[in-house]
Design brief:
Length: 161
């Protein structure tokens, strides 16, 4: 993990902790920003160099986990009773369409970087966060704790070398 990413994660961890403790009105926005900026980097690092200690059998299930997450997000959107929060729009459909079409263009550079898989995973994670924030209805304490723990672990992992 690059050193700059560890510093980046530590900085975001400090901002999330500050907002969680003192500025709850900013917490949801800070969680969104931290998530949107760290998830693509984490997913790309996991794609380029997965951890050696993870068995190959587990790595085969990795794409299925994202498929299951996507299915759960769609089911949540379909069966939720809430009136506010995330609602799918035609723009969301366009984003998904672009994410599916661009990786399949005939450019070998795009195909070799496996950007299609990465784009789909990033979009699934972003939509999942938006749906989760809508379902939580402002009660973001546990989500903040999870994101804060992940940021601290990323920072510790990067600083440990």
């Amino acid at each position: 993990m690059p050193g700059y990413f560890a510093v980046f994660s530590a900085g975001f961890a400090a901002v999330v902790a500050f907002c969680w403790a003192l500025r709850r009105d900013l917490l949801e926005a800070v969680l969104r920003i931290a998530f949107f900026l760290t998830v693509p980097l984490v997913l790309r690092m996991g794609q380029v160099g997965p951890a050696e200690w993870i068995p190959a059998a587990v790595l085969r299930w990795y794409p299925l986990a994202f498929g299951l997450l996507a299915l759960l997000v769609v089911m949540t959107l379909k069966f939720t009773r809430r009136q506010k929060g995330f609602k799918a729009t035609p723009m969301d459909g366009l984003i998904v369409l672009i994410a599916l079409v661009v990786p399949n263009l005939p450019d070998p550079a795009v195909r070799s970087a496996q950007m299609g898989d990465l784009a789909v995973r990033i979009i699934v994670m972003f939509f999942a966060l938006e749906v989760l924030l809508g379902e939580l209805r402002g009660r973001t304490g546990r989500l903040a704790a999870g994101i804060l723990a992940a940021l601290v672990l990323l920072a510790a992992r990067g600083l440990a070398g």
